[in-house]
Amino acid sequence: MFQIRDPNEDDTDKNHDYITVLSDGGESQPLPRWKTYLYTLQLQAPKPKRIACRFEVPSKPPFYGKEYHGNITREDADQLLSEGDGSYLVRKSERAQNAFTLAIRFDNQTKNFKLYYDGMHYVGEKRFDTVHDLVADGLIHFYVELKAADYIASLSNESNYAESPYHAYTARKKRLERSQKSSSKKLSYNERASVATNGSANGALPQGTEDFDDSLDADVGSYEKKHNFKTQNFMGLHWCDFCANFMWGLIAQGVKCQDCGFEAHKKCSEKVPNDCMPDIKYVKNIFGADLTTVIKARNTPIPVVVDKCIKEIESRGLDAEGLYRIAGLHDEVETIRMSFDKDGENTDISEAKYDDINSLTSVLKLYFRLLPIPLVTFDSYKIILDTMKQDEPRSTRQMTKLREGLAKLPPAHFQTLKFLLSHLLRVTDKKPKNMMGPDNLAIVFAPTLMRSPDADPMQSLMNAQFEQKALETMIVCFRELFSRVSTQQSVDLSHGARKPSIDGRTFDRV
Ligand SMILES: [Zn+2]
Ligand SMILES: [Zn+2]
């Protein structure tokens, strides 16, 4: 594997391929230099030259201007375009009715394209306001691809991701986040436990769980996340964050990740690993956004909505009758949702502002219901439902299967579920007052946490009772299910591995 060399450079330049800057931590790190070869080619590309028709053409379509020549032959068009590269005109198709042909001169040849209009002009996927822009973009592509075909073909293959601009920037961001996390981002389930289990009958820990790991120490920066690439019309000049080369053309020059802003050639984007570092600049909403994306963008171990709502609900005691069963006021729930999307961690959900606790419980349920991928992801769901259907309730086999299902969860989902279940367990401690046991809570929460991948409504309906049973079991057996998984998972994460192992076995994460 070798570094792409810019053909414009000679070897004396070699030592300057990377400039070194000092990062916040005082360490030096290389930043790749942007490569300008393709940019200079774009500048050299022929410019569009409209060959205007000197006559009034009868029944000229209103969306064409002087470039429209009507019913002329291929040979006539060829003749008119002999002015040189970049010349173009539009004529009526010789073969089809109401069809038009765009003829462009390039490299001393006339290229003919079927030209379409639907409010925008296009010959392929890319759409343009004017025929002139379409031709300008086409000429850039013809030229760049003619002059640099081999160079372009090698862009994504020969680029070293470890030396890409994106990698350099995110490495810095990750270091920054790690230093912030160590000071303030550690949470403990016990912080909440001390509030809720005070004086409760079930407050004591079950036997054999003294070493239960209930810290929420998550290395959010290391969580795997796919980029969310979409084709982008870049305004102005842009360079690829993967290969550091110019993204040529006038529109749809490449793709951009909607979550972190990574810009790349389409082909380069296919080589990028799943290490998206979402930015709050791009990920504005919390509700309805992917869980991993949100916590990575905000660098919190669990989503701010879940953290704040549970903290507030526990601080008001968990005595309210029908907690989580009774719905809050619709308008109030909407107001809280919008302020979380707008203010994030600074959202005020204090009792002075919202005295109805049911509005807070409804917001929490709404958050889970709106997740694009449910908290219990589809991979885990299948394993969990299978054991609920097939195995003896709470048998050793079922516990093993449930832990296996939980281990399939992406770390962000796992940590959030663990956090929520530990809270629900404390809610059940107050059952004599709030009348909410694990069975009632399971009925309320199962539809928001689990979603059947089965499209058949009858099947989904039949699954509902098993979903409830699964959730009830997860609440009641919380410590048994999460102790070993969590301990092992946090160890694995800290070493950068992504396969939590349970009892010495390793489960593949998808
Ligand atoms: Zn991304
Ligand atoms: Zn590229």
UniProtKB/TrEMBL annotation:
From the UniProt record, list the coiled-coil ranges: none
Pinpoint the SH2 domain residues.
67-135
Q: Where in the cell is it found?
A: Membrane
Q: Which UniProt keywords apply?
A: GTPase activation, Membrane, Metal-binding, SH2 domain, Zinc, Zinc-finger
GO terms for CC?
Answer: membrane
Ranges where the Rho-GAP domain occurs: 289-482
> What range(s) does the Phorbol-ester/DAG-type domain occupy?
226-276
Q: Region Disordered: what ranges? A: 173-209, 489-510
Output the SMART domains linked to this UniProt entry: C1, RhoGAP, SH2
Q: Specify where it is mainly localized.
A: membrane
Q: Which GO biological-process labels does this protein carry?
A: signal transduction
Basic and acidic residues bias: where? Answer: 500-510
Q: Which GO terms describe its molecular function?
A: GTPase activator activity; zinc ion binding
> Per UniProt, what is the membrane topology?
Peripheral membrane protein
| Listed InterPro entries | C1-like_sf, Chimaerin_SH2, DAG/PE-bd, PKC_DAG/PE, Rho-type_GAP, Rho_GTPase_activation_prot, RhoGAP_dom, SH2
List the transmembrane segments. Answer: none
- What's this protein's name? Beta-chimaerin
Organism of origin = Pinctada imbricata
